[in-house]
Write a structure and sequence with these properties.
The chain has nine helices and 20 strands. The protein has 342 residues and is of the alpha/beta class. The strands form four sheets. A seven-stranded parallel β-sheet has the order 18-17-16-15-14-20-19. Strands 5-6-7-8-9 form a five-stranded antiparallel β-sheet, with helices on one face.
Length: 342
């Protein structure tokens, strides 16, 4: 209850700050994490306000000590987690959920070429102290702190005000136009075509081959799809996947004596037990095209996303994979049975 009250007060402070900002302050917002002002001012360090709520660039989380983050560009998701808790900001689906499957009303926002996360959701989930003040004439100051010893906002702002001035001056100088009178502003370069995305879908029990496969992946994005039984038998391996920002999916068998829905529920329970996470990604043996309309509707109504490979490979040789990917102009999802990995 104490945490909820503190966060609610912080949210009210942020809302109040937005409405009564000092009129003399420039249109700049500073962000300080654990009493360190993030600089220089850029899209990676400047918070924004959307509908009265404060959002921070996802990369600003790198300054926190007790949580980690991973931006999966293939799935368009930002994962924020510590050992016990996890928040998934799914930009593709427009939703936010935690390790228990609970959904939140605030979502990530893609803007200015980066991703912004709702500060109130992160601070509530991981019990951070947040505050906002306008004691500096150079701009607003939002603070995030993980510890209990928090300096007074006015006292802290006064101690860093000279630094805020230097950071602001550097930012203002960077915005100045350098085009001489009469010169034409050069046209922006043409946009590059969207790059092809290659993604590896690994199916099967990682007990014998998982560590070798994981060390062979390099920069390849990969998802590991396991049955409920395999999930329970590979807890340590799956926790390593989660800590590295890898994707864990659920593998369902159409030849099983239990229904797909029952398998899904069992696998979801196993995944929560082993990793305290939830997965919405499902692979069905034989491919989703073989599912009846009723079975497909039952799975999609459960909120899962069905994955099917459009190319099968028999090894992890990167050159071979990329060569085959070059023949397809869109997203490539490679299928590989983990017992065949080499």
């Amino acid at each position: 209850m104490k945490m909820r009250v503190r966060v609610l007060c912080a949210a009210l402070i942020l809302s109040f700050f937005i409405s009564v900002s000092a009129p003399a302050a420039p249109d700049v917002v500073f962000l300080a994490v654990n009493n360190t002002v993030l600089r220089p001012l850029s899209v990676d360090t400047i918070p924004i306000y959307v509908n009265g709520e404060t959002y921070i660039p996802y990369s600003a989380l790198s300054s926190l000590k007790t949580v980690k983050y991973y931006y999966n560009r293939t799935l368009n998701q930002v994962l924020v987690y510590d050992f016990w808790q996890r928040l998934t900001f799914d930009l593709a689906e427009g939703r936010t959920f935690d390790e228990s499957g609970e959904y939140y009303d605030f979502y990530a926002i893609a803007k200015n070429g980066t991703v912004y996360l709702p500060l109130i959701v992160i601070s509530t989930k991981f019990d951070f102290y947040i505050s906002a003040s306008h004691y500096s004439e150079y701009g607003a100051l939002i603070r995030i702190n993980e510890g209990d010893k928090i300096a007074d906002d006015r006292e802290y702002t006064e101690s860093v005000n000279n630094l805020l001035k230097r950071v602001y001056d550097d930012y203002a100088d960077s915005l100045k136009e350098t085009v001489e009178p009469g010169e034409k502003t050069p046209a922006p370069p043409p946009e590059k075509p969207a790059s092809r995305i290659s993604y590896l879908m690994l199916r099967g029990d990682p007990k014998a081959y998982g560590e070798r496969v994981l060390s062979s992946l390099g920069d390849l994005d990969a998802a590991f799809f396991l049955t409920a039984g395999q999930i329970r038998e590979n807890g340590d391996f799956l926790r390593r996947l989660v800590s590295e920002g890898r994707t864990v999916g659920i593998y369902l068998s159409q030849s099983s004596e239990t229904t797909l829905s029952e398998q899904l529920k069992d696998a979801e329970r196993a995944l929560r037990e082993q990793t305290l996470t939830v997965s919405r990604f499902v692979c069905v043996d034989g491919g989703s095209a073989a599912l009846s309309e009723e079975a497909r509707d039952e799975l999609t109504d459960a909120g899962v996303r069905l994955w099917d490979p459009n190319l099968e490979v028999t090894g992890l040789r990167s050159a071979t994979i990329q060569n085959r990917a070059s023949r397809i102009s869109t997203t490539v999802v490679f299928g590989l049975d983990i017992t065949e990995a080499s």
